[in-house]
């Protein structure tokens, strides 16, 4: 409980969505003596392979919640990330170890997002402030004179002091508020396929995180504990069914590393990619965060990370608002800051990665790769780029606000 606050009944917040953003928001609220009802539409924790990269800045923000060491134990430390040309090999490699003077975690942690949720749900099981309810889809929210109400699909109404919408890109909370979700949709669909085959035994200087440029079929290769995940574009003329077929996976993997036997495919999914940001992150006592508030292409691994940053600042700020240590005006400033960072930092960086990788014009592609190579070759520019790519700069941009709520991780 914040210093100077005295209350016999803790404030109550409903959090919609038990993904990484909703779970972190619940942890932040509970740490600040706020009762949480955490609602998840699915019957159990979804364990599909989605985001799997945690950046150094995100690990710093998560450190106070006792989860990082457990995540490291269940994940894979990736000290380097590289930009490659599909035919020439490595163009630029960045060593996050050089950020050791800035962060306790000078690496990317390759750890599937559901593992963070599992760790937090294990903590919630013994925390009387957190009530986790599966099979509980939220259908709408309503403002109250002092608070908000969550209306479940079943018709049940849960009255609370506030509601957080962390219920994904198709957020019922956002739609209920009538918020716009402005932006664009990329022409290409993205296919993600995973294999246990050890690609690094057959590709020279393969890092655990690789962005691979090619005029015909660019790709991203990411290592997790058990699998190599490969992301490819799906072009016009190829149906979803064709892209998800065994033949498609085999053709694409054989194009990465040719081998005489067929590839084992452990997972496959296809999706459309958007760059969109809600016009408001806070309406009355209802707050949006994560994919409910902003979505972007996955090139750079900033979507889920940005959502966790939302959760730390906005859930922490909301706890202060409910306890009377943060004013409504100040909290609105927190929400607008997170919106600006989604627009000016995450969207900008991820779109730049898309341009670097996907350019079909040989001159544009060559220039982008040359610029990346020059950046990596210079100590100063490489260091500055890694501060951005690691999202440390994004947390620095919130220093004043995070200090307000006692959550700034860099000292």
Give a description of the structure.
By secondary structure, this protein is of the alpha+beta class. It has a single domain, classed as FAD/NAD(P)-binding domain (3-Layer(bba) Sandwich), CATH 3.50.50.60. It contains 13 helices and 20 strands. An 8-stranded mixed β-sheet has the order 6-5-14-15-16-13-17-20. A 6-stranded mixed β-sheet has the order 8-2-1-12-19-18. A hairpin with a 5-residue loop joins β14 and β15. It is globular and about 65 Å long. It starts with 11 loop residues before the first strand and ends in a 7-residue tail after the last helix. The N terminus is likely disordered.
Oligomer: single chain
**Number of DSSP E strands:** 20
Look at the structure and name the CATH superfamily: FAD/NAD(P)-binding domain
Total domains? 1
- The name CATH uses for the topology is FAD/NAD(P)-binding domain
Q: How many separate helices? A: 13
Strand content: 25-35%
What's the rounded overall pLDDT mean? 92
Characterize the overall form. globular
């Amino acid at each position: 409980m914040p210093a100077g606050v005295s209350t016999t009944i803790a404030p109550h917040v409903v959090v919609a969505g038990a993904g990484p953003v909703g779970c972190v928001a619940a942890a932040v609220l509970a740490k600040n003596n706020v009762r949480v009802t955490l609602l998840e539409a699915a019957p159990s924790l979804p364990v599909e392979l989605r985001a799997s990269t945690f950046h150094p800045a995100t690990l710093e923000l998560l450190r106070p919640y006792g989860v990082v060491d457990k995540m490291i134990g269940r994940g894979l430390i990736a000290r380097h990330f590289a930009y490659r040309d599909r035919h020439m090999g490595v163009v630029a490699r960045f060593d996050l170890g050089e950020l050791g003077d800035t962060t306790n975690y000078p690496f990317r942690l390759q750890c599937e997002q559901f593992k963070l949720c599992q760790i937090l749900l294990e903590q919630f099981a013994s925390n009387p402030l957190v009530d986790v309810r599966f099979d509980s889809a939220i259908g709408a929210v309503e403002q109250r004179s002092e608070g908000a109400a969550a209306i479940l699909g079943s018709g049940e109404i849960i009255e609370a002091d506030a509601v957080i919408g962390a219920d994904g890109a198709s957020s019922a909370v956002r739609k209920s508020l009538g918020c716009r979700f402005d932006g664009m949709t990329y022409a290409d669909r993205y296919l993600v396929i995973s294999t246990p085959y050890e690609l690094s035994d057959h590709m020279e200087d393969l890092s655990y995180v690789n962005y691979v440029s090619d005029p015909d079929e660019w790709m991203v290769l990411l290592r997790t504990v058990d699998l190599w995940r490969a992301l490819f574009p799906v072009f016009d003329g190829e149906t979803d069914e064709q892209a998800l077929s065994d033949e498609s996976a085999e053709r694409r993997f054989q194009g990465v590393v040719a081998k005489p036997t067929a590839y084992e495919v452990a997972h496959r999914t296809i999706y459309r990619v958007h760059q969109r940001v809600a016009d408001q992150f806070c309406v009355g006592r209802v707050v949006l965060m994560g994919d409910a508030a902003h979505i972007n292409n996955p090139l750079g691994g900033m979507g889920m990370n940005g959502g966790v940053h939302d959760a730390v600042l906005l859930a922490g700020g909301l706890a202060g608002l409910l306890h009377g240590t943060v004013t409504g005006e100040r909290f609105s400033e927190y929400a607008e800051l997170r919106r600006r960072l989604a627009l000016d930092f995450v969207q900008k960086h991820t779109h730049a990665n898309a341009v670097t990788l996907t350019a079909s014009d040989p001159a544009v592609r060559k220039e982008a790769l040359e610029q990346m190579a020059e950046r990596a070759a210079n100590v100063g520019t490489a260091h500055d780029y890694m501060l951005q790519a690691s999202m440390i700069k994004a947390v620095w941009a919130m220093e004043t606000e995070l200090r307000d709520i006692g959550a700034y991780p860099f000292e």
